[in-house]
Amino acid sequence: MEKELKVQMEGILENQGLARAIAAAYVSQFDPTLDELTEVKTAVSEAFSNAALHGYGGEHTEDVKKTVTMEFATVSAGTIMIKVMDKGCGIEDISKAMEPLFTTDTDQNRSGMGFTVMESFTDRLKVDSKPGQGTTVTMIKKLDTYYGF
Ligand SMILES: Nc1ncnc2c1ncn2[C@@H]1O[C@H](COP(=O)(O)OP(=O)(O)OP(=O)(O)O)[C@@H](O)[C@H]1O
Ligand SMILES: [Mg+2]
Q1: Is residue 148 part of a domain?
Q2: What is the pTM of this model?
Q3: CATH of the domain at 39
Q4: CA distance readout (Å), 128 to 13, 36, 46, 85, 147
Q5: Ligand 1 atom 4: residue of nearest CA
Q6: Of 47, 60, 66, 100, which has the most beta carbons under 10 Å away?
Q7: 17-37: per-residue pLDDT in tens?
Q8: Atom 20, ligand 1: which residue's CA is nearest?
Q9: Cα–Cα distance measured from residue 139 to residue 98, given in angstroms and rounded to the nearest whole number
């Protein structure tokens, strides 16, 4: 792996813009198209908001340290791996959570499309999660425009 970047920040919704900006800055060094830039920014933004809102959103996580770690690296020329990790409440049933329109949000603010967006904007999406321990979202994105120079 090359060009590794690891960022740790507080997992609160106020930091969503910062998470997007960091993702944009990272991917910009590979000369992406505007579409690719938007896709990476949006996928990271969805993963980050999930960590803040769901991972650290429950009452029982109020006194937990809300740390989100984002890792970026290239696994081969023009192929980026991104991890967004939280130590929040975790996900009971991962495949159910990943279904389009599934949400545990009760006040109608959420559409349940975050994972679907991450899936469609990246080439590979993997979710590892354990209730009470946290969630790691791993995404692979190939930049079709990358020629290695
Ligand atoms: N990091 C996480 N920690 C705990 N639960 C999560 C996490 N990420 C997702 N989930 C669970 O998976 C569900 C689906 O997530 P998804 O992002 O697809 O939809 P949403 O966040 O509910 O709505 P939207 O993203 O459209 O605003 C969430 O409602 C939540 O229950
Ligand atoms: Mg979401």
Answers
A1: no
A2: 0.96
A3: 3.30.565.10
A4: 22, 25, 16, 9, 32
A5: 55
A6: 47
A7: 999 999 999 999 999 999 999
A8: 112
A9: 14
